[in-house]
């Protein structure tokens, strides 16, 4: 009798609350007007407390999310229970805590970046850091050929920290397969992958199923397409909005349920910036619990061409 795969669970991602600017749609409405570090730390702690109350025990952050690791670290000191904490290296925050700059983050997958960011992450997240991921391991990353760095990273495993990577762009599937094939001393370098999967962009699904079959943790990000798969981002007369209304939930819950229902999925990240959004997102669990894995949200929305999806995403303004 094969061991049943445990149901996928929700996690909380801090990309939208750790810094004053990000690319999601309704920030001017949902975030406090005061985007000072103190105001965003308070909002982050409020969300983490609400996540704990909702039984969410997985938190995702990154060096490039402004001061998100610092905000999470200060909350973890008194957290009970302590969630599973994952972070990322590979992008550096350069926004200077401003909203009106053109560049907010710079990519660097070199060894010096790894060393300095690992030191910064462990200084802020110390004993709680469980998983360290390469941020957006795309085809152009020098990491693929950098064996000395791969060996350096593998040493982190010996210290009990898992290694993973995230993917982005229309060629995610290729990066998922290539990343999980990387080995150091005969063992897979990565045991966790984080990829964008949602009802508009499900193209990485098959590769993620292979990842799960190989025993990797599969984390879904951008489950509501940065706000496009929410009541605010979806036409009220659409089939998807109608299906959500019929079930008494928001479009966000239906979209996230579509991800939670994927048999290969381990964690689906909520990117909520308000407690009300997080509670609405969490309704996805009840939908899946009710419908099991025979969930076909796809019938309500047609997937987009991946290249078109990612080009639309790259045009989203940061604010
Ligand atoms: N390359 C990478 O590794 C990478 C890239 C992206 C994300 N991630 C991870 O994935 C997490 C989630 O991704 P994401 O935040 O970019 O995308 P997302 O989850 O698709 O979008 C979240 C955004 O949707 C809006 N929203 C959510 N629920 C809503 C509701 N009920 N009603 C109205 N609006 C709602 C909110 O934005 P507004 O309120 O501003 O509209 C929220 O910030 C991140 O926090 C991060 O941990 C990783």
Features:
TIM Barrel; 319 residues; globular; eight-stranded parallel β-barrel; alpha/beta; 15% strand; binds NADP nicotinamide-adenine-dinucleotide phosphate; two-stranded antiparallel ribbon
Can you list the strand order of the major beta sheet?
Answer: 1-2-3-6-7-10-11-12
Overall mean confidence score, pLDDT = 94
Largest sheet: 8 strands, parallel, barrel
Number of domains: 1
Q: What is the fold-level CATH name, i.e. the topology?
A: TIM Barrel
Q: Tell me what portion of residues adopts beta-strand conformation.
A: 15-25%
Number of helices: 11
CATH level 1 name: Alpha Beta
- SSE succession: EHHEHEEEHEHEHEEEHEHHEHH
Low-pLDDT stretches are: none
What oligomerization state is this entry in?
single chain
- Structural class given helices, strands, pairing? alpha/beta
Computed over alpha carbons, the radius of gyration is 19 Å
Cα distance, first to last residue? 51 Å
Query: Per the principal axes of the C-alpha atoms, what is the gross shape?
Result: globular
Residue share in helices?
A: 25-40%
Count of strand segments: 12
């Amino acid at each position: 009798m094969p061991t049943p795969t445990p149901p996928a669970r929700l996690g909380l991602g801090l990309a939208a609350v750790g810094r004053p600017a990000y690319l999601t749609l309704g920030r001017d409405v949902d975030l406090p007007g005061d985007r000072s570090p103190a105001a965003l730390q308070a909002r982050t702690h409020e969300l983490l407390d609400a996540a704990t109350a909702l039984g969410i025990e997985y938190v995702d952050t990154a060096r490039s999310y402004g001061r998100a690791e610092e905000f999470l670290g200060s909350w973890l000191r008194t957290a009970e229970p302590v969630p599973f904490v994952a972070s990322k290296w590979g992008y550096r925050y350069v926004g200077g805590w401003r909203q009106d700059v053109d560049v907010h983050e710079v990519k660097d997958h070199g060894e010096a970046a790894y060393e300095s960011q690992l030191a910064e992450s462990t200084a802020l997240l110390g004993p709680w850091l469980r998983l360290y991921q390469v941020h957006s391991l795309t085809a152009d990353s020098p990491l693929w050929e950098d064996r000395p760095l791969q060996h350096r990273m593998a040493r982190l495993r010996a210290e009990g920290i898992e290694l993973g990577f995230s993917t982005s762009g229309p060629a995610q599937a290729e990066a998922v397969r290539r990343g999980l094939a990387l080995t150091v001393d005969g063992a897979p370098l990565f045991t966790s992958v984080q990829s964008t999967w949602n009802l508009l962009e499900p193209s990485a699904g098959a590769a993620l199923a292979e990842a799960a079959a190989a025993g990797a943790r599969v984390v879904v990000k951008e489950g509501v397409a940065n706000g496009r798969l929410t009541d605010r981002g979806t036409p009220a007369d659409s089939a998807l909005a109608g299906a959500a209304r019929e079930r008494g939930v928001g479009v966000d819950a239906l979209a996230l349920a579509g991800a939670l229902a994927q048999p290969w999925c381990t964690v689906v990240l909520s990117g909520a910036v308000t407690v009300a959004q997080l509670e609405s997102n969490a309704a996805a669990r009840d939908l899946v619990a009710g419908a099991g894995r025979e969930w076909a949200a796809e019938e309500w929305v047609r997937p987009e061409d991946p290249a078109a999806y990612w080009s639309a995403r790259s045009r989203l303004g940061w604010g």
